[in-house]
Amino acid sequence: MALDLKTLRVRSLTAVIFVIVLLSCIYYSYFSFLGLFFFVSIWSLYEFYSLAEKMGTKPFAGTGMVLGVLTFLSIYSLQLPKESMDVKFMQYAIYLVPFIIAMQFLFSKHEQPFHDMAFTIAGVFYCIVPFSQLVKIPVIEYGTVNELAASYDSFKILGIVFLIWANDTFAYLGGSLMGRNKLYERVSPGKTWEGTIIGIILCVVVGFVLNMNETFSNKWMWPLIALFVGIFATIGDLIESQMKRKAGVKDSGTLMPGHGGVLDRFDSLLFVSPFVFVILKLVAEIN
After folding, report:
1. Disulfide-capable partner of 247 in 1, 54, 133, 171 (CB 3.0 to 4.6 Å)?
2. In the beta sheet, which residues pair with residue 182?
3. Contacts with 204 (C-beta within 8 Å, 6 or more apart), sequence order
4. Residue 191 parent element (H or E)
5. 213: Cα separation from own chain's centroid
6. DSSP state of 259
7. Which residues contact 270 (CB under 8 A, 6 or more apart)?
């Protein structure tokens, strides 16, 4: 098969732009990082509802998008002092979510409103909650916006991203060289047990290397995060692959030519984020 140079150029350019934008927004400031992942969470939700429609459901997409914004702001605002009405509104906004969904369900003319409502809620949990936890990882637990920005440690997020990339790379190389037994052939024919295990092991090795930055006082923290990244990044990728197969599409969207949509690029981080957040909180309480 002849090499399609035009497709290769498009994929390469898109990949370069994606990496530059991602790393720059994470590294530049807390606000660029926060803005990027607010956009990513909302766009991921949009793509999720598009996939859901292709799977034969009719989620309440408009309502879901509004709920997505409310949920992200509400979870984010929990780390802010209750000194103003706007912060109080954001913190209490999440309590409105079930009532808004219930009213949509009551007045819906869909043939299967309960089923569609379930997908609407699932989208918010799948796309919004993980990223609203991710933005809490590199800052102090509680403070004003300026205090959060001053405490921002971009290396915590960059390290997680590098671990995901390392796991993907080593799993691909390990599977290509040594792969024999399929991991979950029905969903992802290219993944093998050998590649997955190699990816996890070498990802943990990279975790020990990240300790050189001394981000955490606990020398086992990065390797522990790396272990969870290796496991749950793979699961996140499989879940998104399953959704795309059910929807009968190759990509979740077309935002990034040659690379698909936002869900295609961030499926691993979606699943990794809440587990890393919980690990950090548990270790902090133990210590």
Report:
1. 54
2. 192
3. 223, 226, 227, 230
4. strand 188-192
5. 24
6. T
7. 44, 126, 127, 130, 131, 236, 263
Query: What would you measure as the largest C-alpha separation in the chain, in angstroms?
Result: 64
> Mind listing the pLDDT tens digit for each residue in 163-199?
999 999 999 898 888 878 888 778 888 888 989 999 9
How far apart CA 270 and CA 98 sit, in angstroms, is 23
Provide CB contacts within 8 A for 37, sequence distance 6+: 131, 134, 135
Contact present, 22 and 161 (Cβ < 8 Å): yes
| Distance (Å, whole) CA 111 – CA 246 | 20
CA distances from 200 to 115, 179, 212 (A): 37, 14, 20
State which amino acid sits at residue 249.
V
Domain spans, the chain: 19-152, 154-287
**The whole model's pTM is what?**
0.91
The structure tokens listed for 119 are 């997908």
**Can you tell me whether residue 112 is helix, strand or coil?**
coil
HSE, side-chain direction, 13 A CA sphere, residue 222: 25
Q: Kindly state the tokens that stand for 51.
A: 């996939």
Q: Among all chains, which residue has been given the structure tokens 């047990």?
A: 193
Cα separation, 208 vs 211, whole angstroms:
5
Strand partners, 188: 184
Give the least confident one: 4-8, 48-52, 132-136, 201-205.
Answer: 4-8
Alpha-carbon distance 101 to 103, whole Å? Answer: 6
Pairwise CA distance, residues 182 & 273, whole Å = 26
The closest of 262, 269, 273, 267 to 14, measured between CA atoms, is 262
